[in-house]
């Protein structure tokens, strides 16, 4: 069955991130001047305005910073997933990523809960980083 949910678009700023996801790696920009790891990608470091940028791979661990349980959805493709959790996960390296929490009942999700990345290979070319409770 074809994947009928929205997919990330082609964007030169996010290409390295999505290319990494395809290889099951969470890649973020890291400032070469101050070390700040940032998301979303940007030309300048939001911390020091430096342009010197490296890429760093996240270990894929973090905590739930905030979340919401969707019990209704305006998009028909998500109907079968209800209820589901959309969360802001704060990675150990610093960036906060909007994602889904999977692998547990919605009611078990809590702020500050440790989580680890899992990969949802939704098409042959797109893998989405989602998170499950860390053991
Ligand atoms: Zn910086």
* Envelope shape: globular
Radius of gyration: 16 Å
Main sheet properties: 5 strands, antiparallel
Helix content: under 10%
Question: Termini separation (Å)?
Answer: 32 Å
Tell me which ligands are bound. Answer: zinc ion
The percent range for strand residues is 35-45%
- H and E order: HEEEEEEEE
Would you tell me the overall average pLDDT? 95
Gist of the model:
The chain is mainly beta. The chain is built from one helix and eight strands. The chain starts with 14 loop residues before the first helix and ends with a strand.
Describe this structure in words.
- The chain is mainly beta and 135 residues long.
- It contains 1 helix and 8 strands.
- It is globular, with a radius of gyration of 16 Å.
- The protein starts with 14 loop residues before the first helix and ends with a strand.
- Zinc ion binds at residues 31, 33-34, 36, 45, 47-48, 50.
Task: Quickly list its features.
globular, mainly beta, 3-stranded antiparallel sheet, binds zinc ion, 135 residues
Indicate the topology:
Layout: H1 15-22, E1 27-31, E2 37-38, E3 53-57, E4 61-70, E5 84-91, E6 96-101, E7 114-121, E8 127-133
Antiparallel strand pairs: 1-2, 1-3, 4-5, 4-7, 5-6, 7-8
The structure holds zinc ion.
Zinc ion is lined by residues 31, 33-34, 36, 45, 47-48, 50.
């Amino acid at each position: 069955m074809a994947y009928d949910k929205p997919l990330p678009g082609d964007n030169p700023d996010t290409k390295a991130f999505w290319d990494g996801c395809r290889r099951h790696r969470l890649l973020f920009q890291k400032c070469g001047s101050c070390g700040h790891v940032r998301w979303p990608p940007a030309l300048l470091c939001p911390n020091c305005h430096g342009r010197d940028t490296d890429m760093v791979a996240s270990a894929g661990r973090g905590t739930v910073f905030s979340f919401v349980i969707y019990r209704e959805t305006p998009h028909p493709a998500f109907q079968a997933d209800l209820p589901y959790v959309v969360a802001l996960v704060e990675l150990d390296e610093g960036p906060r990523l909007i994602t889904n929490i999977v692998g547990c009942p919605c009611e078990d999700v809590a702020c500050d809960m440790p989580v680890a990345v899992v990969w949802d290979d939704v098409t042959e070319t797109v893998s989405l980083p989602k998170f499950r409770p860390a053991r």
